[in-house]
Amino acid sequence: MANKKNFVLRIDETTYAALEKWAADEFRSVNGQLEWIISQALRESGRSPRAPIQPGADQNKKDKDK
Q: Which helix (DSSP H) or strand (DSSP E) does residue 40 occupy?
């Protein structure tokens, strides 16, 4: 497992509540959801050290051909 950097994030309560709801909807922790959002944004912008994804590609959709 890669080492992770700890940092403080200040976020307003309304935004946090929306993030918390989104994370719960996808069965993730808030921290996990933030990591996923950042990872997706980095890949879509071509700035991630991981393999890039196609912009606009829906990674959550399993049955694209239906």
A: helix 30-44
